[in-house]
Design a protein that fits this description.
Structural class: alpha+beta
Largest sheet: 4 strands, mixed
Helix content: 40-55%
Order of helices and strands: HHEEEHEHH
Shape: globular
Strand order of the largest sheet: 1-2-3-4
Number of helices: 5
Strand content: 15-25%
Length: 122
């Protein structure tokens, strides 16, 4: 285990690598603002595997996950999947913060501020 992360299977790690190469526009916008320890010195990882799931963004030492949701997360099936995923992550001591893609498009500064409010001083 690395810094409290669950060891990911080779399949999940491979999917995460593919997802990193295929960022959505919202993911690309947010990543440009949080990568490289830009948020109060905390490092985030993109498409971080926590088997069997892949987190959009993760600050592993804090076990803080940032998830971006598009329109597909409105369906009953997706909401049920998200609830199972959240229960799994919380059972493994992860905190999950969700934003709609539209929030990123319309108020990127507000999204970044909201994330920063959850980070302790370093």
């Amino acid at each position: 285990e690395t810094e409290g992360a669950l060891k990911a299977s080779p399949v999940t790690r491979g999917r995460a690598k593919t997802l990193r190469a295929e960022f959505t526009d919202a993911e690309r916008m947010l990543w440009s603002r949080i990568k490289g320890r830009k948020l109060m010195g905390w490092q985030f990882r993109a498409q971080h595997p926590v088997d069997p799931y892949i987190l959009d963004f993760a600050c592993v030492p804090l076990k803080l996950a940032i998830e971006l949701d598009g329109a597909t997360h409105s369906s009953v099936e997706e909401r049920a999947h998200d609830a199972r995923r959240l229960a799994f992550l919380e059972a493994h001591d992860w905190r999950v913060v969700r934003f709609w893609n539209d929030d990123v498009y319309r108020n990127l500064d507000g999204v970044v501020e909201s994330i920063m409010e959850r980070l302790p001083p370093k």
